[in-house]
């Protein structure tokens, strides 16, 4: 069995992103698809502080650039947003039991002058996968030489990587052609990530925050928490 899945390279993604990776043998990051014009998880995510939701957004250059691929988007370093983000995280999580274990990495990420958003996001994703002790191969779509779009893209990725199964979220059903997978003898399977409850600072539980919130609060137990989270996988209807 070889399970392949794919996701856009979000900024400090939520636990469902990594649940999908942990249940895959190969995890493809879609770096050559179009960067959205509006709000996107590629540049922002939610954390938690004493006021409730703490949004952190990475500013990028968009005006006058037209349609961009995700891998071509550049970070805007004007202003002091990086210093402010680092201060916000440190203030919000200074009392989290495992924040000291990750503080050096967080400081490094918000101190580096990345040119491209993708590089920043990849560094965070790679660090988290390593922290979760994930046994998964990480592949960029740009490395595969595939330029198709959905509803063909996922099937082309699965075929190129020799997948026996392609894992997708339930919400993707309407975007995929089951026939394309059937033609290649690939089983299309679905799962629906649900909020995983774990200890947090600052009051009641808040679901689907950045995975960093879990790492800061749960440390080495994070991988176990994600792996035992509620999961429903169904083979496609025939």
What does this molecule look like?
Strands 5-2-1-6-7-8 form a six-stranded mixed beta sheet, sandwiched between helices. A two-stranded antiparallel ribbon has the order 3-4. The C terminus is likely disordered. It has one domain. The protein is an alpha/beta fold and 238 residues long. The relative contact order is 0.21.
Descriptors:
single chain; 238 residues; alpha/beta; 6-stranded mixed sheet; two-stranded antiparallel sheet; 32% helix; 16% strand; disordered C terminus
Provide a brief overview of the structure:
With 238 residues, this protein is α/β, with parallel strands linked by helices. The protein contains 8 helices and 8 strands.
What's the topology here?
Layout: E1 3-7, H1 15-22, E2 26-29, E3 44-49, E4 52-57, H2 81-93, H3 99-109, H4 117-131, E5 137-140, H5 153-160, E6 165-169, H6 178-183, E7 187-191, H7 211-218, H8 222-227, E8 234-235
Low-confidence stretches: 229-238
Determine the fraction of residues in helical runs and give it as a percent range.
Answer: 25-40%
Structural class: alpha/beta
The shape, in one word, is: globular
Assembly state of the chains shown: single chain
Mean pLDDT: 93
Helix-strand topology string: EHEEEHHHEHEHEHHE
Order of adjacent strands in the largest pleated sheet: 5-2-1-6-7-8
């Amino acid at each position: 069995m070889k399970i392949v899945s794919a996701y856009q390279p979000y900024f400090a993604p939520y636990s469902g992103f990594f649940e999908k990776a942990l249940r895959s043998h190969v995890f493809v990051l879609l770096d050559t698809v179009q960067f959205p014009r509006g709000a996107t998880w590629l540049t922002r995510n939610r954390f938690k502080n004493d006021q409730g939701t703490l949004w952190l957004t990475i500013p990028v250059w968009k005006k006058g650039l037209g349609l961009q691929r995700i891998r071509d988007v550049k970070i805007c370093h004007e202003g002091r947003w990086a210093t402010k983000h680092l201060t916000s995280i440190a203030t919000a999580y200074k009392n989290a039991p495992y924040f000291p274990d990750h503080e050096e990495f967080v400081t490094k990420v918000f101190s580096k002058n990345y040119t491209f958003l993708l590089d920043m996001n990849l560094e965070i994703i790679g660090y988290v996968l390593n922290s979760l002790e994930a046994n998964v191969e990480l592949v960029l779509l740009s490395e595969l030489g595939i330029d198709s779009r959905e509803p063909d893209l996922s099937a082309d990725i699965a075929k190129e990587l020799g997948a026996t199964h392609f894992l997708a979220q339930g919400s993707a059903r309407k975007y995929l052609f089951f026939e394309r997978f059937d033609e290649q003898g690939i089983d299309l399977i679905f799962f629906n990530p649900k909020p995983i409850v774990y200890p947090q600072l600052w009051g009641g539980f808040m679901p689907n925050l950045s995975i960093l919130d879990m790492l800061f609060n749960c440390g080495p137990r994070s991988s176990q928490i994600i792996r035992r989270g509620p999961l429903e996988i169904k083979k496609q209807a025939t």
